[in-house]
Amino acid sequence: MEASERRVISVIVVNEASVLSRITDLFSGRGYNITSLTVAPIPDSKYSRLTIVTSGSIRVIEQITKQLHKLIPVLRVYEHADLVEKEMALVKFPITENITDISTLCEAYNGKIVNVGDNVIIVMVADEPKRVENFLQVIKRYNPKEIVRSGAVALER
Amino acid sequence: MQINGAQMVIEALIAEGVDTVFGYPGGAIMNVYDEIYKQNNFKHILTRHEQAAVHAAEGYSKASGKVGVAMITSGPGFTNAVTGLADAYMDSIPLVVISGQVPMSLIGTDAFQEIDAVGISRSCTKHNYLVTNAADLPRVLKEAFYIASSGRPGPVHVDIPKDVTAQIAEFDYSIELDLETYKPHIKGNPRQIKKAMEAIAKSRRPLFYLGGGIINSNAADEVRELVHKTGIPAVETFMARGTLSHDDDLLISMLGMHGSYAANMAMSETDLVIALGARFDDRVTGKLSEFAKNAGVIHVDIDPASISKLINADYPIVGDVKNVVKEMLELSSQVKPEKYASWRDTISKFDELHPLAYHEDTDRIKPQWVIERVGQLLGDDANISTDVGQHQMWTAQFYPFSRPRQFISSGGLGTMGFGFPAAMGVKSACPEKISVNFTGDGSILMNCQELMTAVEQKLPVINIILNNNFLGMVRQWQTLFYDKRHSETDLSVQPDFVKLSEAFGGIGYRVNTKEEFDAALKDAVEKNIVAFIDVVVERMENVMPMVPSGGSLFNMMLLEKKEK
Ligand SMILES: Cc1ncc(C[n+]2csc(CCOP(=O)(O)OP(=O)(O)O)c2C)c(N)n1
């Protein structure tokens, strides 16, 4: 077995109906794995950018990029080597937890409290996916009620 | 010009130079059929099943090199056609398949005869469209034809809701296509080509590995020239049969699972594989790690995703085979044919050791004999289609093909039921050639309703049933690998194929002897109507040689030598 590695791929596609399902169908149909996928329009253009986190051997990743490129609405496929990568997470805590501690922790992970209600507080962090992972480990002791991750977005340096 | 969507479909087909459309009407596509009724520019052939319409369009396309067109209705019409789309996708056949869809207002409501057609066809087409506005139709149809026929060809599916076919909008087919995201690589990189030619000049035992891409890109003439100029022997894939003529000294027959001993040994011994429009299919390579183990690889293909997918290419060249081979020809003087004389000798010895052959039988006709016999009697005058099974492999092995597009068969998907409708498509594209379909007693029943189409449309396909009372190819595997447990492959209960053909207005022959076969074939050619020639052949014959699936090419099961 060839070593399987985490990879980040960006895909620029024409904004048109069903383009997203073309991409995801390609992954499922060929047995490739998607760890996360984010997508949003590129400002002032008719394109959208997808950031796909996947894993596979060099050969598999090469096939993924080539097969993606074959799709008609795909303009460009980048397999990133040197990139800035960020992910966001929103976490809901019971109001009874230590807010000061949580707030300090958030700051360490480029985040803050974004909402305080009667029963819960909600915080956000935005950082490298690895660090977001760390954060989510660390905050376990404050009994988070719900966690939402955005999936990674990335830009070549 | 302001016209409705249905008229646009007709106008686009005319503008594309389409002369034949295969199809089957229904509710959602009726507006288009109404326009078909009113026009005289192209012919519509009503098949008796949508699957057959698509296979016929495939046969038409493969024989003519043009884009095949099929027209179907929504729901069951579309689902029937899916096998054809998948078949065309696997064999890179350019098709435009137009389907009706329920009206826009009903999409997503589980309406009568609604199915998510583009959702289904996405994985078995090169591209597809759901047209939601008649104003988009001219562009979509123009793109569909362009995408189907350019780059690595393939089927394109256009799904049109019924109300869109009634909608009126501006039709201007002279629009320029603006496909900035789709730009197939046609020209190979000159530096890579130069390096590849230098590698060839240096090699001692090079081998051409010719694939179906050569036929698709109409490159057979250039390839023949390159092979002859360099004096390098060549093996053909199943899909490339006919690239070199059967009597070409440099052709070593087909390689792969049922390839010849010489072809597979040459592939195992070569030091440089020159793959042209071939995709290293698993039925060709056998065990990948043992395939051409000590060889460098030059790989020319229009599809970048095919290159280094399975076998690493030392000289990857993305481009249209025809273009690339033309450039290779210009550099070919550095390659000295004399240098390969001993290599050619070695290969001839392989061939003498285990030629493609079969044992004659005095009581029963051998299926291989039938194919050879048709080759002797009709040769180049016939276009040959097949269904799927043993008869298909024997045809690829034993028919003397002499030109590209002479052999039409389902390679990638291996679709039983392909042969007869495809042969009708071939006949409509090439009426001057005799159209022969080699089929099995299993396969022919999968689209035998097309007898009606063939009678009505005067498409005199000669179906030669190599009748072994078995699903022969599956039976062969059961015999060899499942300890002769012939589970559900015995076809002893059969229709009377003669009467079946006659019931539709065709002609039928039951053949037990070689003399009867000759007479039947002669009569069928003369009568010139659709025919079934039901040939009783040896039941237990196996396709040999054979590389067991996953085995390595040099480890073949060979034809047993006959005891004297
Ligand atoms: C639609 C479809 N179903 C099943 C198969 C599997 N299959 C491959 S060959 C074969 C037997 C074909 O039998 P027949 O047409 O009688 O030809 P023979 O092998 O006897 O020449 C079968 C069932 C297939 N290729 N296609």
From TrEMBL, chain B:
- The chain positions of domain Thiamine pyrophosphate enzyme TPP-binding read 387-535
Q: Which cofactor does it need?
A: thiamine diphosphate; Mg(2+)
Keywords assigned: Amino-acid biosynthesis, Branched-chain amino acid biosynthesis, FAD, Flavoprotein, Magnesium, Metal-binding, Thiamine pyrophosphate, Transferase
The UniProt record lists the Thiamine pyrophosphate enzyme central domain at 193-327
InterPro entries assigned: Acetolactate_synth_lsu, AHAS_TPP, DHS-like_NAD/FAD-binding_dom, THDP-binding, Thiamin_PyroP_enz_cen_dom, Thiamin_PyroP_enz_TPP-bd_dom, TPP-bd_CS, TPP_enz
- Choose any GO biological process term that the UniProt entry carries and state it: isoleucine biosynthetic process
- Pathway of this protein? Amino-acid biosynthesis; L-isoleucine biosynthesis; L-isoleucine from 2-oxobutanoate: step 1/4; Amino-acid biosynthesis; L-valine biosynthesis; L-valine from pyruvate: step 1/4
Q: Gene Ontology cellular component?
A: acetolactate synthase complex
Q: Which reaction does it catalyse?
A: 2 pyruvate + H(+) = (2S)-2-acetolactate + CO2
Per the database record, which ranges form the Thiamine pyrophosphate enzyme N-terminal TPP-binding domain? Answer: 4-119
State the family named in the UniProt similarity comment for this chain: Belongs to the TPP enzyme family.
Protein name per Swiss-Prot or TrEMBL: Acetolactate synthase
